[in-house]
Amino acid sequence: MYKIGMISLGCPKNQVDAERMLAQLDSNGFSIADCYEGVDAVIINTCGFIDAAKQEAIENILEMAQLKEEGTVKKIIVTGCLAQRYKEEIFSEIPEVDAVLGIGSNGQIADIVKKVIEGENIYDMPDNELLPLTGERLLTTPEYWSYLKIADGCSNRCTYCAIPSIRGNYRSVEFDTLIEEAKQLAAAGTKELVLIAQDTTNYGADLYGKIRLPELLDALCEIEGIKWIRMLYCYPDKITDELLETMARQPKVLHYIDLPLQHADDNILKAMNRRGDSAYLRQTIGRIREAMPDAVIRTTFIVGFPGEGEEEFENLAEFVNEIEFDRLGCFEFSPQEGTPAYDMEDDVDSDTKLRRGEIIMQDQLEIVTLKNTERIGKIYRVLVEDYDRYSDSYSGRTYMDAPEIDGTVSFTSDNDYDPGDFADVEIIGMNDYDLIGKDIN
């Protein structure tokens, strides 16, 4: 029996791809290792979205190359977005790599791994839209929460983004297929279902000629065992009244919207090829908060985009302080080959990007501190995730916190909880982005 290791990097969408590959390997008799010592092959499922992600992927490949030289790892297989985007460079510059596979190869991963172990060097770049959107998964998340990838690819064509060239156009998974997969996840213990895609709010438009996300949410809410449904990657131009009505009406759908806005200056938004201006963004956020006064809004911004002068940055900073987002991430612009923004003039120097990012995040910390102070004394439902015997306390997440992204709540209790249980917790303090509480049950 061949022993296989897996390193999956990058976003949750990539993680689901890795889970499908692991399930194929498992069903074909491979042994899935939890470490790299003595493996016959290691698969590195890479991300190649921004420079930091590319660097992380390269570092992991080089680390495995060192282990291969030492005899710990026998074969190295690179797949995922970096492999799709820089196929020739990987083979030519890292000769220790035995196979470079495009994402369209994922459906044949078991056969390919067997050939590589038996001595073949493989370079396989089929159409990226051959990437399987369905199939069994070997879950890598805790059993009580899991991702449901409802689409892959993207057709938005933001000028800074290479995803369409890597992943292809937007492709929704068929409605009934998603419902069946969600039922299987629930039967396996999933309580929190996290919906993901490059553009979650566009679900169904390509297959059915209309957006069917509200209908999908209604159907998912009928599945026994699912307690929480969370959505990530919601584009502001598709936050419809129907979607907001569904979120407000369905108790299982969390009042949490991940709304990647990227900027708030009209000229920069136009240069990014983002739909809507700052007035439209304000209107959209107002509609969300009117429909769900307790809504938690998470966003991301890019600083240092070409043409971002001090005035454009000030518009962004004022927007952040005006809107007071609950969750916010800030990234420095990273020019990507093959995108329109790569060749744009007026590039902002790295020191200025760093300074602007620090300003945004410092402002956001002050906003979060104020918001968390206002949460002291309130009671929240917490999904328990861990127990620390040294502090004799549990930790978990509220509806306000997406797994592996946002903060946590640590709390004391006289009760015994297992991961995946729910507790009612009164907030008594905070630690920057995290909350501290006590169990009231």
Structure notes:
This protein is an alpha/beta fold. It is globular. It starts with a strand and ends with a strand. Helix 13 (310-323) links the parallel strand 13 and strand 14 (327-332). The chain has 14 helices and 19 strands. The protein folds into three domains: 3-130, Rossmann fold (3-Layer(aba) Sandwich); 145-374, tm_1862 like domain (pyruvate-formate lyase- activating enzyme); 379-439, OB fold (Dihydrolipoamide Acetyltransferase, E2P), CATH 2.40.50.140.
CATH homologous superfamily of the largest domain - what is it?
tm_1862 like domain
- The CATH class of the largest domain turns out to be Alpha Beta
How large is the count of helical segments?
14
Radius of gyration: 22 Å
How many strands in all? 19
CATH T-level fold name of the largest domain: pyruvate-formate lyase- activating enzyme
Measured between the Cα atoms of the first and last residue, the distance is 49 Å
Residue share in β-strands = 15-25%
Name the average pLDDT: 95
CATH architecture of the largest domain: Alpha-Beta Horseshoe
Estimated structural class: alpha/beta
Low-confidence stretches: none
Report on the biggest sheet. 6 strands, parallel
Number of structurally distinct domains: 3
* Helix content percent band: 25-40%
